[in-house]
Amino acid sequence: MHDLQSLGETLVQLSAARLSELGLPERLADAIEQARGIRKHEARRRQMQYIGRLMRDVDPEPIRTRLAQWGAAPAAEKARLAAVERWRERLLVDSAALDQLCAAAPHADRALLSALVTRVQGERARAAPPHAYRELFRVLNTLLSTVHAT
C-alpha cells in the first residue's frame, strides 16, 4: 500500500498533459488534481492516502513503465549532447578526428566541418567571441542526431 501511495505522490508531481496520457480512471485523476491544491500537511497526507487507496483498483505496472520511459528520455538526450560535445573537442585537438567522424557519419560535409574547425581555432587565437564554436556544435548536433536516428 505504501508503494502505491508513493506512486501516487509521483503522479501528483506530473504535469496535467503527462497525467492525461496515462489514461487513469476519472476518480483517481480528480483526486490527484485535488492533491495539487492542498497545502496543509495533514489534509495532504489524508489525500495521498486516498490516492493510494484508489490506486489499488489500477494496475500500477503500465504506469511505472511509462514513468520509466519518461525518465529515460532526458538521460538519453543528455548522453547524446555529451557525445556531440566530445566530438567538438576532439575535432579541435586531434587532426585525425575529422577522418574518424566522416567514417562514422558518411553523409557529413567534410569541407564545412574543416572550415568550422579552422574558424574556431582562429577565434581562440584572437580571443574572439565563440560564434564559430557554437556553430560547430549546431552542425555536429544535427549531423549526429541523424546518425543516431537511423
Keywords:
elongated, mainly alpha, 2 domains, 82% helix, 8 helices, Diphtheria Toxin Repressor, domain 2, 150 residues
Report on this structure.
The chain has 150 residues and is mostly helical. It has two domains: 2-58; 73-149, Orthogonal Bundle (Diphtheria Toxin Repressor, domain 2), CATH 1.10.60.30. It has helices at 2-13, 16-21, 26-37, 41-55, 60-93, 97-104, 110-126, 131-149. Helix 1 (2-13) crosses helix 3 (26-37) and helix 1 (2-13) packs across helix 4 (41-55). The radius of gyration is 24 Å and the shape is elongated. The model has no long low-confidence stretch (mean pLDDT 89).
Question: Short summary of the structure?
Answer:
It contains 8 helices and no strands.
Biggest β-sheet description: none
Number of domains: 2
The second-level CATH architecture of the largest domain is Orthogonal Bundle
Distance between the termini: 43 Å
Q: Tell me the number of helical segments per DSSP (H or I, 4 or more residues long).
A: 8
Count the beta strands.
0
Residue ranges: pLDDT <50 for 5 or more in a row? none
- Please identify the top-level CATH class of the largest domain: Mainly Alpha
Q: Name the helicity range.
A: over 70%
CATH homology superfamily of the largest domain: PSPTO4464-like domains
Structural class: mainly alpha
Taken as a percent bin, the fraction of beta residues is under 5%
